[in-house]
Specification:
Length: 174
């Protein structure tokens, strides 16, 4: 009985120590993440989508870019995806591009999610987390609106309704 109690206390202590260590680490490193400023150029990046196509943000100059960071385990992300897909279908021929960046999950998991949700816009995985770091991503979901000049117009943290997605795409339409 004493061994079981000792083991339980040790596990609890280890979990608490890990939580404290993570909090300290996260706070020390949060300043390394750049803060994206509205009106300034969006950090450029190159990622490969799930179909093997290369996407460089700077090559979308002249178009509005709806840049969405998400993950399959994020429930608000999952709920907003159909809204983004529906509005993408409305705005893709009007110069608005959706780029969705998953936070470091496996291709298998992301592809199953894309298939289940019927997504047609480019989805990429930020495998090494460099794009997320450049954009200071935390928490998910977060969306950046980038105008035809390549400047950040707005950032929005949290789930998007279909009406909000429509308004945002309208804002960045060239």
């Amino acid at each position: 009985m004493k061994k079981k109690r000792l083991l339980t206390r040790t596990i609890i202590l280890a979990v608490l120590a890990a939580a404290v260590a993570y909090t300290l680490y996260a706070n020390m490193n949060k300043d390394k993440n750049q803060k994206i400023e509205v009106g300034k150029p969006a950090p450029d990046f190159v990622l490969i989508d799930m179909n093997g196509n290369k996407h460089r943000l700077s090559e979308y100059k002249g178009q509005g870019v709806f840049l969405n960071f998400w993950a399959t385990w994020c429930k608000p992300c999952e709920r907003e995806m159909p809204n983004i897909e529906n509005q993408y279908q409305q705005f893709k021929d009007q110069g608005v591009q959706v780029l969705a960046i998953d936070s470091s999950e496996t291709e298998l998991v992301v592809n199953k999610f894309i298939e289940r949700k019927g997504l047609n816009f480019p989805v990429m995985i930020d495998k090494d987390g460099q794009v997320q770091a450049a954009y200071g991503i935390n928490p998910l979901p977060i969306t950046f609106l980038i105008d035809k000049e390549g400047n950040v117009v707005k950032s929005h943290t949290g789930e998007l309704t279909e009406e909000t997605v429509r308004e945002f795409m309208e804002q960045i339409k060239p």
